[in-house]
Amino acid sequence: xxxxxxxxxxxxxxxxxxxxxxxxxxxxxxxxxxxxxxxxxxxxxxxxxxxxxxxxxxxxxxxxxxxxxxxxxxxxxxxxxxxxxxxxxxxxxxxxxxxxxxxxxxxxxxxxxxxxxxxxxxxxxxxxxxxxxxxxxxxxxxxxxxxxxxxxxxxxxxxxxxxxxxxxxxxxxxxxxxxxxxxxxxxxxxxxxxxxxxxxxxxxxxxxxxxxxxxxxxxxxxxxxxxxxxxxxxxxxxxxxxxxxxxxxxxxxxxxxxxxxxxxxxxxxxxxxxxxxxxxxxxxxxxxxxxxxxxxxxxxxxxxxxxxxxxxxxxxxxxxxxxxxxxxxxxxxxxxxxxxxxxxxxxxxxxxxxxxxxxxxxxxxxxxxxxxxxxxxxxxxxxxxxxxxxxxxxxxxxxxxxxxxxxxxxxxxxxxxxxxxxxxxxxxxxxx
Length: 432
Description:
By secondary structure, this protein is an all-alpha fold. The protein contains 18 helices and 2 strands. The chain has helices at 2-8, 28-36, 41-66, 75-82, 91-102, 112-129, 138-153, 158-177, 182-203, 224-250, 255-269, 273-282, 296-322, 325-333, 338-353, 355-368, 380-390, 399-426; strands spanning 155-156, 213-214. The protein has a two-stranded antiparallel ribbon.
């Protein structure tokens, strides 16, 4: 009896069964390829065709890249070394890298100045792009434009100091009067800044600060990829707040402000950028006082900024239109005035919606900076088309130079795109 009960008792395992590896076809690269490349017969055919096309491209380009020559002083020497074999003449990059990056007139002994300004750009942009960083770093962000100007252009240190004092005076007047009237604070701040700048301009002479004068570099000596970066960063930074102001002005209930913004936006969007650049080069100087000599770089910045601001204004207007009416009513119910409602409730949501469009405009603007080569500004493309290809040593080198330019622009534009995607994921607080 006891034996029967003993054999009929259920067995309870005292230890777990060891885990076994999943089947090879259900994990790892095989599963990924089956799910992503060969999920259906049509996907499999497209994968095979795409792989064949990639093979043809690599079979043609890899030998040309791997057999490249880096140490010659002319295209003729490259061809002698290659002796009919396939290979690139990358010597033009190692020979003319300084002209491609800094132009052919910027003093070689001063290359450290724009290089340092470029490195400091990442430090200044970090607290704006990554808002988890300490807010105290924004102090350096606000000072960076003046530091970069002094590093790149040089001259007397009084110039950036007076510029900073003018901005501080304008901000102080704005803060004092904006509570009573936004318009009074805004225009009062502009007047205060202009007064400080004009008074400071009278003090900026060569004798005023001889001990602190750094070698001045005129704007006509700027060139290469440095010029593209300066135009891109400056114009994007200025066009975003101007575009926000235009978008809000277009939705204003005051007819005069509304129609000024409408006419400006529609006119700028209806004119090609290259036309505006010719206007900046030839005609814009006539709109300033006769005794003033406005720098070409500043004129180009004005035109490119206005051009991109018009497009950004329409992007932001779309973001404002996408918000439900209840958001505006919620701001009114809280007793917020117009400026507070826009700053605290409306614009944060509209800008989040507008991120893809703003990034699209920024990427297009950065690439459009190459158009300044048509008005005799030697940016990266202008250097390739002008001094480098015009020289007898490198006349005939095209793919290497244009490929290098394409690589630089791709790295910057791809970085902007990846940051925008990260920012969208970071701000994705809605539930779908």
